[in-house]
Amino acid sequence: MRVQIDLLGQFRVTLDGREISANEWRREKSAALIKLLALSPGHRIHREKAIDLFWPDSLLDTASTNLRKALHFARRALGEHDLLTLKNDIILLAPGHELQIDVEMFDTAATEALRHGNPVRCAQVAGYYRGELLPDDIYVEWVDERREQLRQLYARLLRAAHLWDKLLALDPTDEEAQCALMQAALDAGNRGEVIRQFQRLRERLRTDLGVGPAAATIAIYEKALAAEKSDPASVADRVRSLLAWGIVSLQSGDFPKAEHLAKEARQLAIEAGLPREMGEASALYGIVAHYQGRWLEMFNAEFMEWTRREPSVTLNVLDGHLCFAEFSMYGVGGHNQVAEIAREFLTFTDETGSTSGRALALLILGEAEFFSGHLDQAEQLLTDSMELYAGVRSDTGRILTLLRLAEIGLARGQKYRAGRLIQQCLRIAEINWLSPHFLMRLQGLVIQMAGTREKTEEAVRQGDSWLARGNMCQPCSMSFRIASTIALIENGELEKAKRRLEETERVAGMWNGGPWVAAVWEVRGLLRQVQGNIQQAGALFEEAAARYAGLNRPGDQERCLARAEKAGKLEVKEPF
Prior knowledge:
The protein is mainly alpha-helical. Among the domains are: 1-169, Winged helix-like DNA-binding domain superfamily/Winged helix DNA-binding domain (Arc Repressor Mutant, subunit A, Orthogonal Bundle), CATH 1.10.10; 172-233, no CATH class. The protein has 27 helices and 7 strands. The chain has helices at 28-39, 47-54, 60-78, 102-116, 119-126, 141-160, 164-170, 175-187, 191-209, 215-225, 235-252, 255-272, 275-291, 295-306, 311-329, 336-352, 355-371, 375-391, 395-411, 415-429, 435-449, 453-469, 478-490, 494-508, 515-531, 534-550, 554-567; strands at 2-6, 12-15, 18-19, 44-46, 84-87, 90-93, 98-101. The strands form 2 sheets. A 4-stranded mixed beta sheet has the order 3-2-1-7. It has a 3-stranded antiparallel beta sheet with strand order 4-6-5. A hairpin with a 2-residue loop joins strand 2 and strand 3 (18-19). Helix 5 (119-126) packs antiparallel against helix 6 (141-160), helix 7 packs antiparallel against helix 8 and helix 19 (395-411) packs antiparallel against helix 20. The relative contact order is 0.05.
């Protein structure tokens, strides 16, 4: 019998030309067993290794029973008993049959093409790559290493074939590809295209990796700016160049130069009336101050200085500091530190009459009251802030206040009201220059208010697709990551939840403490609880509660203590 297994871009098994439908597998682990064997050397695996991969936390007897069930349903789907054998504890796929697997065919052809280095042949073989390995199993750990190997092999083919557009589609932050395209556009006299490509790359690098373009990339960009003396570079282009060099200085550790460039860029942006660039320059200045350990001091000084200026300038400068103010409220010191200076801000605005400054102070104080469990006070402060932001036409401020008001609605069980606020917020956030930050935070709320499994899965898929495309802020993705991991646990998809939790832990490490780290402890407890490790789950909930208590977040603390108390009363059956 001829057996064809496709793993690139999809999972498909074909027997003598007949494709096995998804419904025929009956169980997730039966299909997973075929995938594992297709990727294993010699298409064989020891039963104990399969057990360790699929049911690492189960008792041996339970795991052995689960393996027998997986074998049974896989054989039923294949329709031929001898296509899947178990002998001497070795599981073997299709012994004595003609077996073709697309991964092996691609790997062999790609290795040969790269060895010869023929660009035409490399381009041809690149066409065999029909998508990532098992895209529906992105959180399955044992697939991860092989997926990345194949992805890198595909990238090498594209690089050897000079298929720069496709390489950028695979990795939008690949600077070699971007430089090649920018240089080609410059050589063709297409100055505008160079500028557009640079701007796209700059935004991608900033949001995906938190870095800026390399010096070589900026050099090509500046050549384009200087290419035609009759059509001098716009102020906006010059500001972007300064910001790019500022990030290069930041990354090299030259903080004084980075600060100087940020301030120079901001002054140019103010003179030219460029609101977004004012905000970006202020944000860069804030990051420099953070690296120097003086963010609170800088934020206080900036507020005192700029709330005395022309209102539109004040608004744009303060908007640039909002994202890092939010980041700082999730730091080791929690929200109390930022709230303390916000009280000083509020008093200061009584003297200056700055509407933008007062709106910001009320926003921070409202968030602090929300974190402290004072929902009524938080709602009033945030509503007042939102009205002020609406008056000065600050979409950024309105988004943040609406987002927090939606969270208050969810905390009160008012899902309908929360849903209306989220939809209102989404409409504004989608066209805001800070959308890479806001959309991921909002998607976490969408998951929390989803009433059915189908809606939850749809919300998780949407968030995953945004993350996969890149251009999304990693710190701001924590709300989505926590909510989606909990959703997977509640839906019984424990292997996916475990893998997602590992990635969430990595991102939470950016704070070295704080509420997101406490949230990770809480999610660990939920996972252990569903796995049947009740005692361990209780200890994890108690640890999370203690961390929340230290951050003055009583609502979160009480929830974790209630989970710890309830954990010991549950009887959890191990899922298959």
